[in-house]
Here is the input.
Amino acid sequence: MIGSRETPQHILDIMIKLANKLATQGWIGRSGGANGADQCLEDGILGVVGAKAEIYLPWRGFNDKLNKFPPYYITPKIDHYKEAEVIAENTHPNWAACSRGARALHTRNVYQLLGLDLNTPSKFVVCWAKPTGDGNNVKGGTGTAVRLGISHGVEIKNLYHQDV
Here is the structure.
């Protein structure tokens, strides 16, 4: 579960219920620990026995995460972080304009899509983000994750679209 920090409350409610349902079915959820859509994964799996999630954080202390269950990964501490950073740079439309913090956030998004080993793409992505008008691409930081997902053949389910 990923998406905009501006996700409407009624969509957040749906995302929490969906995260809960998927967790009870044994799916492993991935997210980035941000407020809004990302937080829905963690909220949705609370209390689900055996729930599995991977929460990728761009730096230690991000959003006051406590580094307990579910597993939190501080992405700059992962051995192949530089490889993930190159993937983010090649995916982002204007990497040179990104601050150090923005680059860390976009690099974190790479793990959300490709997993801890950068070789296990997600089966699908559930998100809420405003479209750019260019295919399935979306605005904001979620755009990096969505572009990467599209390039890896990952199904994108953007709840911004009412029909989804």
The chain has a mean pLDDT of 93.
